[in-house]
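A reminder before we start the practical. When you read a complex entry, don't treat the lines as separate problems. The point of joint prediction is that each chain is placed relative to the others, so the output describes one connected object in space. Small molecules and nucleic acid strands, if listed, are placed in the same frame. In the example below there are two entries. Take a minute to note the order of the lines before looking further.
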Amino acid sequence: MTKLLQVQELTISFHQVEVVKNVSFEVEHGEIFGLVGQSGAGKSLTGRAIIRLLPSSAKVTGRILFKGRDLLSLTEKEMRRIRGKEITLIQQDPVASLNPSFKIQDQITDILKLHLKLDNKEAINRAKKLLSEVGVANPEKVLLKYPHQLSGGLCQRVAIAIAFACEPSLVIADEPTTALDVITQGMVINLMKRMQQRYNTSIIFITHDLALASNICSRIAVMKDGRILEVITSSKNILSEANHPYTRTLLSSILTLKR
Amino acid sequence: MNVLRVINLTKKFAEPKRTFLRKDRSFLTAVERVSFEIGENEVIGIVGESGSGKTTLAKTIVRLYEPDDGRIEFMGVDITHLNQKQLRPLRKDMQIVFQNPYLSLNPRRKIKDIIGDVIKLHKLDKLVSVDEALEIVGLPKSYLNRYPHQLSGGERQRVALARALILRPKLLILDEVTSSLDVITKRAILNLLKDIRKSWNISMLFVSHDLAVVNHISDRVLVMYAGRVVEEGNIEEVINNPLHPYTRALIDSVPDISGNWNPKYVYPEIDSLPVRGCKFSHRCPFAFQKCYISEPTLIQLESNRKVACYLYNEK
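Here is the predicted structure of the whole assembly.
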């Protein structure tokens, strides 16, 4: 079986400055793949290049093969059929990633009507089901609220519900827990794992937290200054597998409960 | 002498009721009867999830919010009811650094002016210089003529720290200063604070939602939930032997590198706090009848440990 996603020699530059340099990796079906690095390493840009959401000033070269098709060669119209349906994005700031002027209901049903061609009533029912799947206690109430009326954790659950609404093949999770406190982070991580198993979705998990990545990803690519330094193929054994000095620096920076 | 003494501090915010005819206002108690002390050269950590009242507590202590009840004593002086003019000379000794360095630095002013203003305001021109401030936090002098947007998040947080530290405060309040930073920068800032603490006589109040961060720097820790202190103790004791179920959840939420981290104590989110009983009872796996009826108070256990939970009895 072919790989779900193959990124080949991806280079992204802004005004002749290369910020992502010759990055290649593959994502298997049903895998959680980690992209780890400091701020400015180019992790988010790589993620956004895959879903084709980079600003127009970005120059992208290389190939991004998704189910055998090169996403970079698609027209915007063709890309729209994939974006939000087959490849979705969960962003760092859950409150900012939702539209403040629409109710949660409209934001979930929009995508269901557009991609799955559901009518209004079906879409609302499906939205309710999605919200209960992400552990929202009373979906009917939450559907009628605006993003600012919900907590950060709840907004991130809604964002996850939207990301999984059309049973995508690939979810790009860009620092989905960085803006949340530790307890909410635990809940969101558990939830993403559960959704990933239910729909057999692949996830590209972007984070700066190597400890977090080692616990949920099967493989981890460590990025620095726009390059992939190494790919750790068995993240459970990251302590023995990490070879690159930078990965070791990252590992030693992790704060633990031991002194 | 204690640098800071907080006694039964309470802060409420009015919640406007959306009813047309009713004028009575309901209150949200963000901080409820919190008491603690910070000794000389001591670092106290405050942990809790978002909305537990940590930031409100920090801001109320420096009187950025007006307390509704209780007392704040700084260096033996009751500052609870001092007006802003009377407070100003004390502010030099009591500095606060905020979570978001993007918001706490004026984007239209150069670094030298941002720090220089504070020095002028406290009439320290002859004693200290802006260069010295940058030196403390390990930034090169060439940064003096830069604007905040030309710096990275970690560098900006260093500037914010420099602005507070140049006054040589007795008490430094740090409100989630590392939350917006990546692991390596976070570690660097924490190490900087540790070095300063070693060489200066300075006390700190370190607020964070991450127990691992607090563990790195604090001597004692207060665990807050719904505006109340639910557990207090020496940091090592609290981590090795957490008493309150909520503290266990906080410890459980810190991922380790073993690869089998699986947060067990993840409690469901709730819309609103229970009106009666322990505020944590609806999320607590150990709650029994009494927990839903009345609220436990903070009791003293052996060796300087305090906990507010009916699972424990006073000794």
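Discuss with your neighbour: The radius of gyration of chain A is 18 Å. What might explain this?
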